[in-house]
Design brief:
This protein is an alpha+beta fold.
């Protein structure tokens, strides 16, 4: 899964979506999106989320593309916007004003879902108006042995339920993501009933000055987060990898 986010300056989400994003996505599965170098990778996408930060100025936008892990390097190369390997496409966005600052890209290989549909094994589709907190951190605990049991414990379930978290996904952060820690990196998506809940949960997580977040912060390194409102999620089951 590739998550990418950036700010939009004075342009804002609506103009970015109407003039840049939506027209490009018409070619998502044609093999033409991003040109010959990236078209094949984008065509493997089987879920796509569109997110807005709702800031009053320099609004942040976000997207997540769910795709086979075999295409991760191509997605990473597409979203590289600085340095000698920068994709020249992003200069177009800077010139048009809908890309300010740098793009943050986190990639992860999911290893668990909370709230998954027992019939499919996948989480239910995200809905417009839901809140989403996207988190990255280094785990000072052994991820498989200690962090997963803590994250899926009854007390953890109560905490997340009380804060409106309806679905969670967690995965190992993959090499090349815009995240650094000397510990094993973990990325978590928390889908809330609404944006207000997502924002409050992230604020408590970042402040880490009251239980249980103060204790949680002690086992994390370099925690980062972004908060969004879900604009849409499109699912393409016909592109799911076949066993």
């Amino acid at each position: 899964c590739t998550f990418a986010t950036h700010t939009t300056g004075d342009v804002g989400f609506d103009a970015w979506y109407d003039t840049a994003f939506a027209p490009a996505m018409k070619d998502l599965h044609t093999g033409e999106l991003g040109g010959p170098k990236f078209g094949k990778a984008f065509a493997t996408t089987f879920a796509l989320g569109v997110l807005r930060g709702k800031e009053k100025a320099d609004e942040r936008v976000g997207t997540y593309f769910v795709h086979p892990t075999s295409e991760a390097k191509a997605f990473q190369a597409f979203f590289t916007d600085t340095g000698p390997k920068a994709n020249p496409f992003w200069q177009t966005g800077r010139d048009a004003g809908w890309l300010t600052g740098e793009i943050t890209t986190w990639q992860s290989a999911p290893f668990l879902f909370r709230g998954a549909d027992p019939k499919t094994g996948f989480p239910p589709d995200a809905k417009k108006g839901q809140g989403l907190g996207v988190y990255a951190f280094g785990s000072k605990l052994d991820v498989r042995k200690d962090w997963i049991p803590a994250f899926t414990s009854p007390d953890s379930d109560k905490l997340h339920d009380a804060n409106g978290v309806i679905v969670s996904a967690a995965g190992d952060i993959t090499k090349g993501s815009d995240f650094a820690s000397k510990y094993k990196g973990v990325q978590v998506y928390h889908f809330h009933k609404n944006f207000k809940q997502a924002k409050a949960f992230a604020a408590a997580f970042e402040a880490a000055d009251a239980p249980p977040f103060d204790q949680i912060s002690e086992i994390l390194d370099n925690p980062k987060s972004f908060v969004f409102e879900v604009v849409k999620e499109d699912n393409f089951p016909e592109y799911l990898p076949q066993a």
